[in-house]
Amino acid sequence: VNVNRTKRSTNQIDSLYFPLGLPADEEVDHATLRLILLPTVGDDEVEVEVYRIADRTPVESRIFSIGDGPRWIELDVTDPVVSWHEEEEEDTENLGLELRILSKSSGDFSKVSWAQPVLNVFSTAGSIRRKRGAPDHLMSLHRGRKTECRGDNKKCCRHEMTVIFKDLKGFEFIIQPKDFDAGYCKGRCPPRYNPAHHHALLQSLIWKEDRRKAPRPCCAPSKLAELEILYFDENDASKLKVSTWKNMRVLECACS
After folding, report:
1. Closest to 103 (Cα-Cα) out of 45, 38, 58
2. Residue 208 CB-density burial (10 A; 0-12 exposed, 13-18 middle, 19+ buried)
3. Is residue 212 part of a domain?
4. Which residues lie across from 63 on neighbouring strands?
5. Backbone angles phi, psi at 40, to 5 degrees
6. Which is higher by pLDDT, 27 or 14?
7. Which residues cross the membrane (predicted)?
């Protein structure tokens, strides 16, 4: 870790830089910043704030009690580490983290010092059995499509979207279904993530190398399903008709 300490007026700003070296096919599950707070006279409680240097985005803010001896603390820095690893946008380049320690009693910058910063990154390795000689990035096509969004997933996945026909102008004639889950696709498409086809994979790699040559792939439906519609015959209101409308329900999403 590289540590830089700068002063702005009377305020002390500390910046931390942790180079990442994760394999491209690994996914970051969780990341924490651990460091030791060293007590000082006059501060019983401090607020520790962490910012992402690239865009000054707040990452984490927590209040800690200061005892008589050194204390290990832990802060959640998953979001910036994920963005660094995926290189999603230009403003998410890994420029490090900014650390501020404020006194809860005065509201000013605290004189509490710290030591031994450690970045812990928990990741999931790709579990693909690769054929001898097959390029790793090509095998990512065989992982299967990501479907339903789960938890706080921000990558490309399928979201629910309920359609109620009677609320849509021009669709009041439909008897059944009264509503259905049409779904939609939304989320980030970092390089190599769930490409819909080989072209999308190549486009994502070119975008990673030079963003002027190609746009980043977008999250879009990769598998759609039909929907049966029951409605009154327009020529004879006493009769019912059934029609099959194609590509009405999103089943799976991918980056393309």
Report:
1. 45
2. middle
3. yes
4. 47
5. -145, 160
6. 14
7. none
158/97 same-domain check = no
55: CATH: 2.60.310
Cα dihedral 72/78/84/90 (nearest 10)? -120
Contacts of 204 (CB under 8 A, 6+ apart): 189, 190, 191, 192, 193, 195, 216, 217, 255
CATH number for the domain spanning 153: value is: 2.10.90.10
Tokens of 128: 């693909």
**Sheet with 174-176: strands ordered across:** 174-176, 219-232, 240-255
- pLDDT, tens only, 35-54: 888 877 666 788 889 998 88
Mean pLDDT across the chain, nearest whole number?
Answer: 79
Regarding whether 16 and 57 lie in a shared domain, the answer is yes
Task: Give whichever of 20-24, 84-88, 132-136, 201-205 has the largest mean pLDDT.
Answer: 201-205
Bridge partners for 113 per DSSP: 38
Average pLDDT over every residue of 89-103 = 77
Q: Per the domain annotation, does 91 fall within a domain? A: yes
- Looking at the domain assignment, is residue 134 inside a domain? no
245: in domain = yes
d(CA 109, CA 57): 19
What pLDDT score was predicted for residue 87? 67
| CA Rg value for the chain | 26
User: Which 3 state secondary structure label does DSSP give 100?
Assistant: strand
The token pair at 116 is: 């031994």
Joined tokens for residue 238: 């006493």
